UniProtKB/TrEMBL annotation:
It is found in: Cytoplasm; Nucleus. One of its GO terms (biological process) is thiamine biosynthetic process. Binds 1 Fe cation per subunit. Involved in biosynthesis of the thiamine precursor thiazole. Catalyzes the conversion of NAD and glycine to adenosine diphosphate 5-(2-hydroxyethyl)-4-methylthiazole-2-carboxylic acid (ADT), an adenylated thiazole intermediate. The reaction includes an iron-dependent sulfide transfer from a conserved cysteine residue of the protein to a thiazole intermediate. The enzyme can only undergo a single turnover, which suggests it is a suicide enzyme. May have additional roles in adaptation to various stress conditions and in DNA damage tolerance. Homooctamer. It comes from the Eukaryota. This is Thiamine thiazole synthase. Transmembrane segments: none annotated. It catalyses: [ADP-thiazole synthase]-L-cysteine + glycine + NAD(+) = [ADP-thiazole synthase]-dehydroalanine + ADP-5-ethyl-4-methylthiazole-2-carboxylate + nicotinamide + 3 H2O + 2 H(+). GO terms for molecular function: cysteine-dependent adenosine diphosphate thiazole synthase activity; iron ion binding.
Amino acid sequence: MSPPAATFPNEAAPLNGAYLKKGLPVKSGTPADQAKTLEAMAKNWETNFSFAPIRESQVSRAMTRRYFADLDTYAESDIVIVGAGSCGLSTAYMLGKQRPDLKVAIIEASVSPGGGAWLGGQLFSAMVMRKPAEAFLRDVGVPFEDEGDFVVVKHAALFTSTLLSRVLSFPNIKLFNATTVEDLITRPSPTPTHPHRIRIAGVVTNWTLVSLHHDDQSCMDPNTINAPLVISTTGHDGPFGAFCVKRLVSMGQIEKLEGMRGLDMNTAEDAIVKGTREVVEGLIVGGMELSEVDGANRMGPTFGAMVLSGVKAAEEALEIFDA
Ligand code: 48N
């Protein structure tokens, strides 16, 4: 029998109103009311303002109820995207826009999603995208300056924060950040020529801070998310990068990684977009992770291929889904 829900003073009062000292909650009401409220506060903080009352457990329950409900909902997802960099977020945006019926879970190892897209290159803030990638910027609503064959977003953070806010506004998409994919769920899918062939059927996850300490703590077992389709966009090789394709090699599903080649913008970007595909059954790879599989060149500080690889990854995913 669960304990009776605690009640506290003012619990019935609207939580979205600011409190004037007079004790009467100011209804959130129209923007004019809110403006009045802000003005009233700005003029008289000492005499005319206090927050609505709260009990700490209300905050805890507001967070944990939602998080664990999400874990329950997305334990069976339709699509899992691994990595919330520019490619993963672009993929999520296209899926969110086109298929509100699909449950999409994004697993991002870092606390802060966005990957390498918070800066344009060598800590410079402006972000370059070669045409025709500006079509994606227009669709998302990111302003840019037109420089002929390419466009410039004045700050990479403007691109990433705008895209992130669009993705997070889709009700069917859930971002689990500070969470690492530590392994892949597999199912046998043998063929006469490949008796050990598998298909991907979801991901194995853990808190990133746990993943980083498996070497100095005894077994801290993971969690799982089942999904018929995983889209991996974990970036090129590095401390976290290229995770899923490296796991495919260690499982004997692909022979070896060709490894990312030297920088050649013109070659790299077309290859990454055109090469975005299902690498093994149930696993699509996009963005710079793909360069490790195919031995594609790197493109350096230009991001058009990332967003259009995301567009293609979403297209490939829907073709598989609707097949
Ligand atoms: O930004 P990245 O690294 O990857 P992409 O492919 O979205 O964008 C790549 C782009 O930023 C470039 O590298 C540019 C174009 N430069 C190219 C060049 O030539 O130098 O995002 C990958 C995300 C990151 O946020 C990681 O934290 C995350 O994936 N991640 C993971 N998340 C969960 N589980 C994992 N195992 C994992 N590994 C990486």
